[in-house]
Amino acid sequence: MEKKLQQAEMSILGLRSMQHYSLRKRCIFMLKLTCFILTVFIFCEFLIYYVVIIQCHWPELKNQTLGINKPNSHSVLKTIFLSDPHLLGRINGHWLDKLRREWQMERAFQTALWLLQPEIVFILGDIFDEGKWSSSQAWSDDVRRYQKIFWHPDHTEVFGIVGNHDIGFHYEMTSFKLERFSKVFNFSSENIITRKGINFLIVNSVALEGDRCIICRTAEAKLIELSHQLNCSLKKQNQYKKSCTNVDKLPTSAPILLQVGWKTDRTRSLHFILHGYIEKLFCTFNSSQHYPLYRRSDSECTGEDAAPLEKKNDLFREKYDVLSQEASQKLLWWFHPRLILSGHTHSACEVLHNGNIHEISVPSFSWRNRNNPSFIMGSITSTEVSLYKCFLPYENTVIAIYCTAGFVLVVLILAHFQPLLSPYHFVQRLITKYKAL
Hints:
Blueprint: H1 2-53, H2 62-66, E1 77-82, H3 95-116, E2 120-123, H4 136-149, E3 157-160, H5 164-167, H6 175-185, E4 191-195, E5 198-202, H7 214-232, E6 272-275, E7 286-288, H8 309-312, H9 325-335, E8 339-342, E9 349-353, E10 357-361, E11 374-380, E12 384-391, H10 395-416, H11 423-436
Parallel strand pairs: 1-2, 2-3, 5-7, 7-8, 8-10
Antiparallel strand pairs: 1-11, 4-5, 6-12, 9-10, 11-12
Helix pairs in contact: 1-3, 1-10
């Protein structure tokens, strides 16, 4: 009897020991799965941005490359240009779409700020998707989300430029919408921002309709005034002395004749070197706006982030896809910019105007508009500009990582419940069954 009791006790102890071992094994397995899931999540949502953006670098200027008249580091302005974030609103914005794409932009922007330390950032329009019709409450909510996504330290300046989705196309644009945008972004239509002797002309391209509306007349008058101010800023223009008596002078920098060196390296960079000398009447500056200057289509645009082949030959509509020919020629004639940066098309393009004025169309910054978003990095002085395109993580790469991780996870779980088979044989068995079907 005692032996039976001892055997029963031993059986119970053995059973408890097996249960404890089984429970411990399950806990360890669950811990491993949790660590695997967290590792994949942290990599796809945080680390991948560092891995990709750390490969980008500030481009060298021509004089730096040649070692001639090497510019002082304090005279080089480190600038980032990005375009078309399209923060979704209440009407067209699904909550999951908002969460996914806005998180992508926030991580990309904050990572770029931390790694690259730019001095100034320009967002080239269409910051919001529904600014053209959003109510005051919806606008406040969109602005709050913008300030979270594009938060920046005090030593980095961020300028938002108005786009058609922010205030509407010309027929939707009102003074109220324009003032609402201006208050949030300290935006002033047709304005010159000067940093380190470099002039950036900010243009409200939506107002360049040419139909003499109140906003359009004001914008054109301001542009003419700025053109005169830039011309008066040149030191050697004696013929302008009388008319320039009461004009505030801007920093003088050499007009630009483009000697363009273009190359694409293994990191998919866009690299321009622009160099110039004093020869013309006009003061050099960079033009930043939302609409591109007039071009027939994107048929001449090249690169992996250019428009898709099926859309390249679509003809652009003036005053909708691009500025009108008249407005484009006025801007070129009034200012003779050394470089023009624009957005709106969501795709990359490089256009040469009048044989020597380069325009860069900056692709969208959001996964919502393209699989391979990017931004432009610029090393700029008063005489030179060098640009580099920095790509963000591809959306399909992140999706592929998640899908692969999901497949591995399923295999591990199924293999765990078939302990007699090794993972290798288990996978082989699954493949055999699949082929048999």
